[in-house]
């Protein structure tokens, strides 16, 4: 028998549920930039051009020369939970090589914006297709002339979710988030030419020549690039712990900033933050940095097996290790040895 007593609890309609879920995946323009850039990297692009207007609130465009999509691919790609990257759970357990695999980004972005995708398979003579998607509805799919690769254009993000739109910060703040994301990926992929343009001004463009030092120069400029030293420590040279290698570039202690945003750290190629890594870095510099000052760091950490959960959720940039203390000691030792080698640390013993 159906209950007849009155209740305040009722089922939300599908549209409301979908928009709430979307707000959790795409929180701000930078989240769309992150998802689209990851898709371009997963598509094996050798160039990625990111263009935003008004901090990304008016326009986010990510253009790549990756493998592209056929019309059928494109129609499938914007459906919910569609992916070409994994088949099922067993693929997750054996570890995923791609940055994405949940199959939710394109559909979600398209449900809270007006989204146009132009794509043409890079190999073969397939034609280009333009798909227009608006507030979760397919508006049109038409043939179009376009270069091989994919361009996704996201206009009026959150136009149909006013509550979310209201929480967007100033253009400067939203752009800072976008800049941080694109910078992270540009530095991690020096073999990909990555450019970022904001309101018609080119913010940076890497050459894609495959050199981390050159990528740092393109992104942070000459002063910072010339203050970077190489870190490359692995195997026996590291104290015991889950990390197998620590490599990258770190700045002279005098080249520092008051924000920790220039600590670009990666674990197994993914841009993440981890308290243990950050504490290891700061420990290596010790008192050489003034209070609340941070160096420039672009550091890659490789761990084996299951010492860290590599399938970190896309919204979570923070990872934890089984043994944080060991990781902290390993990072500290690796960076300290590089700084010492370059005579950049006052020895910890008294001077004179
Ligand atoms: P996921 O990346 O988790 O698979 P997305 O919703 O981001 O989910 O993308 C869905 C699918 O669309 C991808 O699996 C991929 O096959 C295709 N796709 C998305 N972006 C691109 C792109 N830039 N180039 C080629 N294929 C793409
Ligand atoms: Mg994706």
Automatic annotation (TrEMBL):
One of its GO terms (biological process) is mismatch repair. One of its GO terms (molecular function) is endonuclease activity. One of its GO terms (cellular component) is mismatch repair complex. It comes from the Archaea. Keywords: DNA damage, DNA repair, Endonuclease, Hydrolase, Nuclease. Residues 216-340 form the DNA mismatch repair protein S5 domain. Belongs to the DNA mismatch repair MutL/HexB family. This protein is involved in the repair of mismatches in DNA. It is required for dam-dependent methyl-directed DNA mismatch repair. May act as a 'molecular matchmaker', a protein that promotes the formation of a stable complex between two or more DNA-binding proteins in an ATP-dependent manner without itself being part of a final effector complex. This is DNA mismatch repair protein MutL. It comes from Natrarchaeobius halalkaliphilus.
């Amino acid at each position: 028998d159906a209950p007849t007593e009155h209740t305040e609890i009722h089922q939300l309609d599908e549209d409301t549920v979908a928009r709430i879920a979307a707000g959790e995946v795409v929180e701000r323009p930078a989240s769309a930039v992150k998802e689209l850039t990851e898709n371009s990297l997963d598509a094996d692009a050798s160039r990625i051009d990111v263009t935003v207007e008004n901090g990304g609130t008016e326009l986010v465009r990510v253009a790549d020369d990756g493998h592209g999509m056929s019309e059928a691919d494109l129609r499938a790609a914007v459906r919910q939970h569609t992916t070409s990257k994994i088949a099922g759970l067993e693929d997750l357990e054996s570890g995923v090589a791609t940055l994405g695999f949940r199959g939710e980004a394109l559909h979600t972005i398209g449900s809270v914006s007006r989204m146009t995708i132009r794509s043409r398979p890079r190999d073969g003579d397939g034609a280009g297709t333009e798909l227009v998607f608006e507030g979760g509805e397919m508006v049109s799919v038409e043939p179009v002339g376009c270069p091989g690769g994919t361009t996704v254009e996201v206009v009026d993000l959150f136009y149909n979710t006013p509550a979310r739109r209201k929480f967007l910060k100033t253009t400067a703040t939203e752009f800072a988030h976008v800049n941080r994301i694109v910078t992270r990926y540009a530095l991690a992929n020096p073999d990909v030419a990555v450019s970022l343009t904001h309101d018609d001004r080119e913010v940076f463009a890497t050459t894609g020549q495959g050199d981390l030092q050159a990528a740092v120069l393109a992104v942070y400029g000459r002063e910072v690039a010339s203050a970077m030293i190489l870190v490359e420590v692995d195997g026996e040279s590291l104290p015991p712990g889950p990390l197998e290698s620590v490599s990258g570039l770190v700045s002279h202690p005098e080249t520092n900033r008051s924000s920790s945003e220039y600590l670009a750290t990666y674990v197994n190629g993914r841009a993440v933050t981890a308290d243990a890594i950050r504490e290891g870095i700061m420990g290596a510099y010790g008192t050489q940095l003034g209070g609340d000052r941070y160096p420039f760091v672009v550091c890659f950490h490789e761990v084996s097996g299951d010492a860290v959960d590599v399938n970190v959720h896309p919204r979570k940039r923070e990872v934890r290790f089984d043994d944080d203390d060991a990781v902290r000691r390993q990072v500290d030792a690796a960076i300290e040895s590089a700084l010492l080698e370059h005579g950049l640390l006052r020895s910890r013993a008294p001077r004179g």
